[in-house]
Amino acid sequence: MILSVLAGCGNKTASTEPKQDQNSQTNQGQSSQQGTDNSGQNTASEDDIIQKIKNSGKLVMATSADYPPYEFHDISGGKDEITGFDVDIARAIAKELGVQLEIKDMAFDGVLPALLAKKVDIAIAAFTITEERKKSVNFSEPYLDGGQQIVTYKGSGIKGKEDLKGKTIGVQLSTTGEAEAKKIEGAKLKQFDRVDAVMLDLMNKRVDAAIVGSVVADAYLKLNPDKFEKAGDKLNSEQNGIPVRKEDTKLLEVVNKVLKDLKDSGEYDKLVQKWFVDFKPVEKK
């Protein structure tokens, strides 16, 4: 069985080129016509994101809910609900701001473009902090350590990356798992929009191995110990952070405050226990 993930995140490397909608283009035009002194406008812009969120009564979060236990669709209660470690973090940020959380689920490679195009307020999707991403966004303080892990089907004979030459590796598009797979000489890549599709192909032996986040690998192995196994140690070490737009410095301060408060209060340790120790994936019916 595969996890109850209905729609297709990672320690992932998405394109950060935003698509401007008509409203953002209009705003840019108005800004250029209002004079050359932008110092006051920049300060207002920094404050406006907090006021905008409070005025709307909601914090709009972009994610890709296919990455248990970070974010995924849970249908165990008879309804489709997006939940997970990142979602609990997001709810704490929304609570700090005194608003409700609204989640927009999308393919992972569209999450950062949605943030940069101002279609959402924040993006939380198990993002690995990378130098390339830092060119476009600012990151919160790291909130979780991880890495990329090779997973194979039982009996594949693959013991580590040295056995992957000539093999087909399933990866999720725009992830650091994809980046690690590209480093393996002689391997073939099969790319997917969502990680649950990667693992389904692996279970059905349509790929020889998959490279996914180590925490996600653990979740799939917990549900399917007779189907999957790890091949070697983690390929790298990574840290997860929450990206915000460069200009949204006040929102970044709120995010970092919430992360610190969660850790200082002991609530962060409870969330780690809940999602990375006690988490029991539900079989898809």
Fourth-level CATH superfamily of the largest domain = Periplasmic binding protein-like II
The coarse silhouette is globular
Enter the CATH topology name of the largest domain. Answer: D-Maltodextrin-Binding Protein, domain 2
Q: What is the C-level CATH assignment of the largest domain?
A: Alpha Beta
What CATH architecture of the largest domain do you see?
3-Layer(aba) Sandwich
Number of domains: 2
List SSEs in N-to-C order: HHEEEEHEHEHEEEEHEHEHEEEHH
Query: What share of residues are in beta strands?
Result: 15-25%
Name the helicity range.
25-40%
Number of helices: 10
| Main sheet summary | 5 strands, mixed
End-to-end distance, in Å?
A: 9 Å
How large, in whole angstroms, is the Cα Rg?
Answer: 20 Å
Could you report the average pLDDT, rounded to the nearest whole number? Answer: 86
Major sheet: arrangement of strands: 11-10-12-9-13
Structural class: alpha/beta
Low-confidence stretches: 1-10, 12-44
Count of DSSP E strands? 15
Can you offer a commentary on this structure?
- Its main location: other.
- This is Basic amino acid ABC transporter substrate-binding protein.
- This protein is an alpha/beta fold and 285 residues long.
- It folds into 2 domains: 22-144 and 239-277, Periplasmic binding protein-like II (D-Maltodextrin-Binding Protein, domain 2, 3-Layer(aba) Sandwich), CATH 3.40.190.10; 148-236, D-Maltodextrin-Binding Protein, domain 2 (3-Layer(aba) Sandwich), CATH 3.40.190.
- The chain is built from 10 helices and 15 strands.
- The chain has helices spanning 22-33, 39-56, 85-97, 111-116, 131-134, 176-182, 195-203, 214-223, 249-265, 267-277, and strands spanning 58-63, 66-67, 71-74, 81-83, 100-105, 122-123, 137-139, 144-146, 148-153, 168-172, 188-192, 209-213, 228-230, 238-240, 243-245.
- It is globular and about 55 Å long.
- The termini are close together.
- Residues 1-10 and 12-44 have low confidence and may be disordered.
